[in-house]
Amino acid sequence: MSKQFINTIAGMLLISLLISACQPGTVESPTTVPTNTAQAATATALPPTATPPATSELPAPADAYQPKIHVDQPIRFAVGPLDLSQEGSVIRGERDRYTLSLLSSEILSVVISSLEGNASFSILGPDQNPLPGTEEYKETIQWSIIAPADGEYAILVAPTRGNATYTLKVQVSAP
């Protein structure tokens, strides 16, 4: 037999195996999932599994990303409105944190500028969660809000790419 004939036969066998593998067949389900309460009584039970611990008992993931805080500076001011302009620089993977105490209904305005347009901020409320609209992935550069609650707020400055040199302007005023 010629080599070409053998290659042709082998190719045809391979194609027929591939085609037969692609043909629909019956797949048996190992369990039945109930779709309503009437069927729940007749459904096949799933094997028992270990009960997961309560949320408070779960350890924090070892690989959870926590950026390094480069600057941690409280903002304090005397009686009267706050008007602060702060220059700084932050490198990739780090954050500068500025904290200040606010009373509910005070107006907080924050603006950041940078030479290369690569600095942004997020604002954390007293519960340490980002205020809506200032989450880190939103790359906020200007924000104004009426403080929803009394407490300590944090402004986290981060570079959006590379390192950033910035000017942060913070104003707090009465409503």
Walk me through the structure.
It is a single chain. By secondary structure, this protein is mainly beta. The protein has helices at 3-22, 37-40; strands at 68-74, 82-90, 94-102, 107-114, 119-124, 142-146, 151-159, 164-173. It has a domain at 68-173: Jelly Rolls (Sandwich). A 4-stranded mixed beta sheet has the order 1-3-7-5, with no helix packed on it. A 4-stranded antiparallel beta sheet has the order 2-8-4-6, with no helix packed on it. The longest helix has 20 residues, at 3-22. It is elongated and about 100 Å long. The protein starts with a helix and ends with a strand.
Could you outline the blueprint of secondary structure elements for this entry?
Layout: H1 3-22, H2 37-40, E1 68-74, E2 82-90, E3 94-102, E4 107-114, E5 119-124, E6 142-146, E7 151-159, E8 164-173
Parallel strand pairs: 1-3
Antiparallel strand pairs: 2-8, 3-7, 4-6, 4-8, 5-7
Largest sheet composition: 4 strands, mixed
Structural class: mainly beta
Shape: elongated
Rg over alpha carbons: 30 Å
Distance between the termini: 95 Å
Estimate the strand proportion.
35-45%
Q: Given this structure, which CATH class of the domain at 68-173 is correct?
A: Mainly Beta
- Give the averaged pLDDT, no decimals: 74
